[in-house]
Design a protein that fits this description.
This protein is mainly α and about 100 residues long. The protein is built from three helices and no strands. The protein starts with about 45 loop residues before the first helix and ends in a 5-residue tail after the last helix.
């Protein structure tokens, strides 16, 4: 999804998601997903490690959402540290609209 438009990328295809525009991706099939993301001039692995292995598990364990103050503050600090512009407040509406699982 880039902006409000949904793109379906076939196996072996590419999708370039621009900076500073709301974008996300998900696997809408029951088949395994493999993807490559490239982030230049930053140690993005550290960002992902903190977000997906520390903050999000805490959020789930404590039954919070991305807009809960504790989580929102941690995500904002992480975004600032890595120069990321994230739209965490829009995550839940996308999950709900497309019937995705957190």
């Amino acid at each position: 999804m880039i902006g409000e438009k949904i793109y379906e990328i076939e196996a072996g295809g590419w999708n370039f998601r621009p900076r500073r525009i709301v974008h996300t991706f998900w696997n809408a099939s029951d088949k395994p997903l493999r993807f490559i993301d490239s982030y230049f001039n930053q140690n993005f692995e550290d960002y992902l490690e903190e977000a997906f292995h520390k903050i999000l598990p805490d959020m789930i364990r404590k039954n919070l959402t991305p807009v809960s103050p504790e989580i929102a503050n941690r995500l904002a600090a992480l975004d600032k540290k890595f120069g990321v512009t994230a739209f965490h407040d829009q995550r839940q509406s996308i999950v709900d609209k497309y019937n995705l699982h957190n």
